[in-house]
Amino acid sequence: MVKVFTFLFAVLISLPAWAETAHDFSFTSIDGEPLSLSQFQGKTVLVVNTASFCGFTPQYEGLQALQDRYADKGLVVLGVPSNDFGRQEPGSSAEIKDFCDTNYHITFPLTEKEVVSGDQAHPFYRWARAELGAFAAPKWNFHKYLVGPDGKLVEWFATTTKPGSSGVIQAIESTFP
To answer: Can 54 be counted among the known catalytic residues?
Structure first.
Protein backbone atom coordinates (compact mmCIF):
# COMPACT_ATOMS: atom_id res chain seq x y z
CA MET A 1 0.00 0.00 0.00
CA VAL A 2 2.85 2.36 0.82
CA LYS A 3 4.36 1.70 -2.62
CA VAL A 4 1.09 2.68 -4.32
CA PHE A 5 0.89 5.96 -2.40
CA THR A 6 4.55 6.68 -3.05
CA PHE A 7 4.05 6.05 -6.77
CA LEU A 8 0.94 8.25 -6.95
CA PHE A 9 2.68 11.02 -5.03
CA ALA A 10 5.69 10.84 -7.36
CA VAL A 11 3.43 11.06 -10.41
CA LEU A 12 1.52 14.02 -9.04
CA ILE A 13 4.54 16.03 -7.96
CA SER A 14 6.21 15.48 -11.33
CA LEU A 15 3.36 17.23 -13.14
CA PRO A 16 3.38 20.98 -13.61
CA ALA A 17 1.40 22.50 -10.74
CA TRP A 18 -0.57 24.61 -13.20
CA ALA A 19 -1.66 21.72 -15.46
CA GLU A 20 -5.45 21.66 -15.42
CA THR A 21 -6.29 20.67 -18.98
CA ALA A 22 -4.61 19.17 -22.01
CA HIS A 23 -4.21 22.71 -23.32
CA ASP A 24 -1.50 23.23 -20.70
CA PHE A 25 0.88 20.83 -22.49
CA SER A 26 3.18 21.10 -25.46
CA PHE A 27 4.94 18.66 -27.73
CA THR A 28 7.47 19.19 -30.50
CA SER A 29 6.15 18.51 -33.98
CA ILE A 30 7.76 15.87 -36.15
CA ASP A 31 9.31 18.79 -38.07
CA GLY A 32 10.94 20.13 -34.90
CA GLU A 33 8.54 23.03 -34.33
CA PRO A 34 6.74 23.79 -31.05
CA LEU A 35 3.30 22.18 -30.94
CA SER A 36 1.23 23.53 -28.06
CA LEU A 37 -2.07 21.80 -27.38
CA SER A 38 -3.47 25.24 -26.53
CA GLN A 39 -3.67 25.88 -30.28
CA PHE A 40 -6.47 23.29 -30.32
CA GLN A 41 -8.72 25.11 -27.83
CA GLY A 42 -12.29 24.75 -29.05
CA LYS A 43 -11.43 21.58 -30.98
CA THR A 44 -11.70 17.92 -30.16
CA VAL A 45 -8.33 16.14 -30.16
CA LEU A 46 -7.73 12.40 -30.43
CA VAL A 47 -4.21 11.79 -29.09
CA VAL A 48 -2.81 8.44 -30.23
CA ASN A 49 0.58 6.91 -29.49
CA THR A 50 1.71 5.37 -32.76
CA ALA A 51 4.35 2.98 -34.10
CA SER A 52 5.38 2.14 -37.65
CA PHE A 53 6.17 -1.55 -37.18
CA CYS A 54 3.27 -2.86 -35.10
CA GLY A 55 0.43 -5.22 -35.87
CA PHE A 56 -1.87 -2.26 -35.16
CA THR A 57 -0.07 0.12 -37.57
CA PRO A 58 -2.90 -0.22 -40.15
CA GLN A 59 -4.96 1.86 -37.68
CA TYR A 60 -3.24 4.85 -39.32
CA GLU A 61 -5.74 4.38 -42.15
CA GLY A 62 -8.70 4.63 -39.75
CA LEU A 63 -7.16 7.61 -37.96
CA GLN A 64 -6.75 9.45 -41.27
CA ALA A 65 -10.36 8.57 -42.16
CA LEU A 66 -11.51 10.15 -38.87
CA GLN A 67 -9.45 13.26 -39.59
CA ASP A 68 -10.96 13.51 -43.09
CA ARG A 69 -14.51 12.88 -41.88
CA TYR A 70 -14.57 15.24 -38.90
CA ALA A 71 -11.93 17.93 -39.53
CA ASP A 72 -14.58 20.43 -40.61
CA LYS A 73 -16.40 19.85 -37.30
CA GLY A 74 -13.23 20.52 -35.32
CA LEU A 75 -11.52 17.15 -34.85
CA VAL A 76 -7.75 16.98 -34.80
CA VAL A 77 -6.03 13.60 -34.68
CA LEU A 78 -2.60 13.94 -33.10
CA GLY A 79 -0.14 11.10 -33.62
CA VAL A 80 2.56 10.66 -30.96
CA PRO A 81 5.17 8.18 -32.21
CA SER A 82 6.63 6.08 -29.43
CA ASN A 83 9.17 3.30 -29.19
CA ASP A 84 7.94 2.21 -25.73
CA PHE A 85 6.24 -1.02 -26.72
CA GLY A 86 8.13 -3.74 -28.56
CA ARG A 87 10.62 -1.22 -29.96
CA GLN A 88 8.29 -0.86 -32.92
CA GLU A 89 9.16 2.78 -33.67
CA PRO A 90 12.96 2.80 -33.95
CA GLY A 91 13.28 5.41 -36.70
CA SER A 92 14.17 9.07 -36.73
CA SER A 93 11.55 11.78 -37.13
CA ALA A 94 12.35 11.99 -40.85
CA GLU A 95 11.93 8.22 -41.25
CA ILE A 96 8.65 8.19 -39.31
CA LYS A 97 7.27 11.09 -41.33
CA ASP A 98 8.29 9.46 -44.61
CA PHE A 99 6.71 6.15 -43.54
CA CYS A 100 3.43 7.86 -42.64
CA ASP A 101 3.35 9.97 -45.82
CA THR A 102 4.29 7.12 -48.15
CA ASN A 103 2.16 4.35 -46.69
CA TYR A 104 -0.86 6.15 -45.21
CA HIS A 105 -0.86 9.69 -46.68
CA ILE A 106 -1.17 11.14 -43.18
CA THR A 107 -2.26 14.78 -43.05
CA PHE A 108 -2.87 15.05 -39.31
CA PRO A 109 -0.09 16.40 -37.09
CA LEU A 110 2.59 14.12 -35.70
CA THR A 111 4.93 14.85 -32.83
CA GLU A 112 8.53 13.87 -32.36
CA LYS A 113 8.97 10.44 -30.81
CA GLU A 114 8.00 10.49 -27.13
CA VAL A 115 7.98 8.23 -24.11
CA VAL A 116 4.31 7.58 -23.26
CA SER A 117 4.52 5.09 -20.40
CA GLY A 118 6.09 4.93 -16.98
CA ASP A 119 7.70 7.59 -14.85
CA GLN A 120 9.63 9.08 -17.79
CA ALA A 121 6.48 9.59 -19.89
CA HIS A 122 5.80 12.92 -21.55
CA PRO A 123 3.97 15.22 -19.09
CA PHE A 124 0.70 14.96 -21.07
CA TYR A 125 0.71 11.18 -20.59
CA ARG A 126 1.55 11.46 -16.89
CA TRP A 127 -1.29 13.97 -16.50
CA ALA A 128 -3.74 11.71 -18.36
CA ARG A 129 -2.73 8.79 -16.13
CA ALA A 130 -3.22 10.93 -13.01
CA GLU A 131 -6.61 12.15 -14.28
CA LEU A 132 -8.04 8.80 -15.41
CA GLY A 133 -6.08 6.29 -13.34
CA ALA A 134 -3.40 3.75 -14.14
CA PHE A 135 -5.91 1.46 -15.84
CA ALA A 136 -6.33 4.10 -18.57
CA ALA A 137 -2.59 4.43 -19.24
CA PRO A 138 -1.20 3.11 -22.54
CA LYS A 139 -0.35 -0.57 -22.44
CA TRP A 140 0.64 -0.80 -26.12
CA ASN A 141 0.81 1.20 -29.35
CA PHE A 142 -2.30 2.96 -30.69
CA HIS A 143 -3.80 3.75 -27.29
CA LYS A 144 -6.19 6.69 -27.71
CA TYR A 145 -7.16 9.65 -25.51
CA LEU A 146 -10.06 11.86 -26.53
CA VAL A 147 -9.74 15.47 -25.38
CA GLY A 148 -12.79 17.72 -25.54
CA PRO A 149 -12.86 21.28 -26.87
CA ASP A 150 -12.39 22.53 -23.28
CA GLY A 151 -9.15 20.54 -22.91
CA LYS A 152 -10.61 17.99 -20.51
CA LEU A 153 -10.25 14.28 -21.08
CA VAL A 154 -13.49 12.80 -22.39
CA GLU A 155 -12.61 9.13 -22.83
CA TRP A 156 -9.80 6.70 -23.53
CA PHE A 157 -9.69 3.73 -25.85
CA ALA A 158 -7.48 0.67 -25.72
CA THR A 159 -5.19 -0.31 -28.55
CA THR A 160 -7.63 -2.92 -29.80
CA THR A 161 -10.39 -0.34 -30.28
CA LYS A 162 -10.36 0.58 -33.95
CA PRO A 163 -10.58 4.28 -34.84
CA GLY A 164 -13.82 3.72 -36.77
CA SER A 165 -15.55 1.76 -34.01
CA SER A 166 -18.97 2.89 -32.86
CA GLY A 167 -17.62 3.78 -29.41
CA VAL A 168 -14.95 6.10 -30.82
CA ILE A 169 -17.39 7.67 -33.29
CA GLN A 170 -20.04 8.25 -30.60
CA ALA A 171 -17.50 9.76 -28.20
CA ILE A 172 -16.13 12.10 -30.88
CA GLU A 173 -19.60 13.16 -32.02
CA SER A 174 -20.64 13.82 -28.42
CA THR A 175 -18.06 16.62 -28.24
CA PHE A 176 -19.53 18.58 -31.15
CA PRO A 177 -22.16 21.28 -30.56
So the answer is: yes
